[in-house]
Amino acid sequence: MRLILSNVLLLAWCTSSALGFSSSISSSLGKTTHRSWTSVLPPLHVSIGLGPDKKMEEEGGEEATDDPVGEEKKQLVAGVDYEIPDHESFRTSRRSKLDEQCDVWFGALLGGEDDKGVLGELADEARKTLLTPVPLVNEEKLPRDHEEYTPYVSTKLPWTPLVPAFGLEEFGLPVPRRNAEAWRHFDVASLVAQSYSGSCEGTGKVMELTDDQVKSFQAQLESSGSWLADDACQARLVYINGRYAPQLSVENDLARNMDSYDSCSEEIKSYLSRLTDGFTDELVTPVQIGDDKVATSYKKLSGPDHCLGEPFSQFAINTQQGTACFAALNTRRTGAVAYVHIPEGKEGDETGERPKPVLILNAVTKNGGAASESEGMAFHPRCLVVAEKYSRLSIVQSSIDLDDMTQHVPKFYNGYTQIFVKDGANVTHSYLEESGGMVTAGVEMSDDSVEKGQPLPREIEAARPELKDTHFEAIDVHVMGDDGKYEGTIMSFGGSGRVRVAHSVSLLRPGSHATINGFSLSGGAQRTDCKTNIHHVAQGTTSEQIQKNMIGGRSTGAFRGRIRVEQSAQQTDSQQLSRSVLLSDRARAWSIPSLEIIADDVKCTHGATVSDLSEEELFYLRSRGLDRTLSRNLLMYAFANDVCTCVDPAMLTSVDSDRGLQKRLIQRLENVVPQGDRAVKGEFQSI
Ligand SMILES: *[C@@H]1O[C@H](CO)[C@@H](O)[C@H](O)[C@H]1NC(C)=O
User: Fold this and answer.
1) Whose Cα sits closest to atom 1 in ligand 1?
2) Tally of CB atoms within 10 A around 656
3) How far is the centre of ligand 1, averaged over its atoms, from the C-alpha of 386 (Å)?
4) Does the predicted TM-score (pTM) go above 0.70?
5) Which end of the chain has fewer beta carbons closer than 10 Å to its terminal beta carbon, N or C?
6) Mutate to test the pocket of ligand 1, among 342, 396, 426, 428 (most ligand atoms within 8 A of CB)
7) Which range of residues forms the domain containing residue 175?
8) Using alpha carbons only, what angle is made at residue 169 by residues 330 and 154, rounded to the nearest 5 degrees?
């Protein structure tokens, strides 16, 4: 009985808010229409079930529903005594076993009171943010003429228990959840089944190496291809297991390891304190909206009807990249901060010859520097880049594994890179993710196509220790000066079991431009996830994006590319193209482009394809006398090379050399070349 009654009331509620919405539309059409609309609106009826309470009819249904808190409960259902729940007791009620495991896992990474990195009070702040759960309040329903009114707020009935959005049950920032949009297609269950609660001995302290160790590390880094000699770069910062290694580095005014947080300027402190995904609401620079209004917060950007509201509402969380909690975790526990600061140049300097790169190298050894036996280790490399007015910079970040033949310990790499680009500066950024060994070739073959007595490739892959490694990186770029340029190239082709790179660029001033190139390779039993977000905030901003994904073996690869054009960003020109090549029947690929355009005077194009390599192109190459395998490899290489050539040329070196990036790429591609039946069939499929 009680149930039916509340259903009826719910219906009444919905009807009235629906009516409310339509009248708000009509009011924007003009006064006269508004009047005629409301005059033809029928009085509120509830025609199913018992009908509205008598008293409620007398008082007018709509009036009563406008303010859901307090008094009006009695107005709605006179005589029925509803219990107002204790919301806190419902906080974790929706949490499943796996969700709970996610929270325990994240809590272990965060560690105790004393587990703190080098960022001083900021680290304390981050811990506080993470450990303060969001307050449970009814989302405020604003009057329709309020400037922040949005129809996207659903106000709950007073007796409905409030529960937080996905991932916010225990922590103040959303942590991973299998059901959350940001984590869909990612292997959350096996991520949280692996503990990474250890950390390298001596974290936070500079690494002292003996001469022999210096030589041996340098040799290993050189043979991995990530090393740049002193005369090939402007500066080089080397981190091993999250600790700074000065003997391997070249420090100068442009780039140094940040020695203490307290001596930083206020500006640097404010940059370091920023979180991703809109959890730091203030924009890094005020943005002009129209002729006289200036916005300083993300929340207010696109006018009330399109406002995403608080970043911890479910609606907003669905559009996020899920990096905020990891950025805060990094702030809490990072053992070293690479700080790159390019001083002001002269106007006109920003074009011309390409500057030598600044190299930031993050290497991990096989046991991750664990002092004793450990279930798993976590590293939190941090990088801050500030490019002053009219400066030019090419920065290369590289992460690799050094095989030092000791016991493998599972590793979690949680990187956070922040880049701030000021007026007229031109920043070229390359990010190379190569950690976690090599995937096993041929895993897609069915068991009976493998020769008798031979080991099954899929079993070899399943036992590969690096499959337990996880690589996360959040790259947050703010182009905060007029005519600032940013060109970012992300190459993700390492062999870690789980890879997730999230790249977010905000274009905050007129004339700013971003080019984003991405290549992501997944093979073996890997799970890769690639996310990009281009946020056009100011007028006359431009962006170009090319994303290439190659998915083979029994792996899963997902790409989510979001472009958002705010109302303030008229005359935006934005192009996005994503191509995925699916090399095996056992692999799975998702490509999810999303365009959110609030402005009306924009040019945006996007395209997404998922296909096998083109049968026609294969045929062409074969008709020139190349055999099937060679043609196929050639096409695969050509597909990846479009993005590869955007990486700083100092890292490329020719295909003939042993260590060049292109050579390494070919080696990795060879491991995802389909084998068995599929290699000869190679049928063309396009979606
Ligand atoms: C920015 O610098 C890169 C190389 O350093 C150069 O290729 C590019 O043309 C520059 N962009 C502009 C707009 O000057």
Assistant:
1) 426
2) 8
3) 17
4) yes
5) N
6) 426
7) 92-189
8) 115
Structure tokens at 200: 């390298």
Tell which one of 234, 351, 482, 542 to mutate to probe ligand 1, the residue whose CB is within 8 A of the most ligand atoms: 351
Q: What is the total count of domains within the chain?
A: 3
10-residue averages of pLDDT along the chain (687 residues): 37 36 33 34 36 42 42 55 85 94 96 92 96 86 80 78 92 94 92 90 89 94 90 95 95 93 94 95 89 86 75 88 96 95 84 88 89 86 96 95 82 96 96 92 86 90 94 97 96 94 96 96 95 95 96 94 93 94 89 91 90 83 87 88 92 78 89 66 41
Kindly give the distance from the C-alpha atom of residue 202 to the centroid of ligand 1, in angstroms, as a whole number.
Answer: 41
Atom of ligand 1 nearest to the CA of 354: 5
Name the closest-CA residue to atom 5, ligand 1. 354
Same-domain status, 304 and 267: yes
DSSP β-bridge partners for residue 360: 237, 397
Please choose from 428, 544, 651 the residue to mutate so as to test ligand 1's pocket, defined by most ligand atoms within 8 A of CB: 428
Nearest-angstrom CA–CA distance, 534 and 560: 11
What single letter denotes the amino acid at residue 463? A
From ligand 1's centre to the CA of 433, what distance in Å?
Answer: 24
| Pocket residues: Cβ below 6 A from ligand 1 | 350-351, 354, 394, 426, 428, 485
Assess if residue 622 is contained within a domain: no
The answer to whether residue 675 sits within a structural domain is: no
> DSSP per residue over 617-630, as a string?
HHHHHHHTT--HHH
Distance from residue 565's CA to the centre of ligand 1 (Å): 24
Q: Concatenate the DSSP letters of all residues of 427-488 into one string.
A: EEEEEEEE-S--PPTTTTS-GGGSPTTSPPHHHHHHT-GGGG-EEEEEEEEEE-STT-EEEE
Residues contacting 233, CB < 8 A, separation 6+? 250, 356, 357, 358, 359, 650
- Give 486 Cα–ligand 1 centroid separation in angstroms: 9
Considering only CA atoms, which of 129, 89, 434 is closest in space to residue 311? Answer: 129
Domain-terminating residue out of 613, 640, 675: 613
In this structure, the answer to whether residues 284 and 248 fall within a common structural domain is yes
C-alpha 287 – ligand 1 centre gap (Å): 25
Q: Measuring CA to CA, how many Å separate 373 from each of 367, 408, 409, 646?
A: 9, 10, 8, 41
Same domain, 114 and 222: no
Rounded distance from Cα 351 to ligand 1 centre (Å): 6
Both structure tokens of 289: 């909206």
CB proximity list for 208: less than 8 A, separation 6 or greater? 247
CA of 235 to the centre of ligand 1 (A): 20
Angstrom distance (rounded) from CA 491 to CA 487: 13
Answer whether residue 636 is part of any domain: no
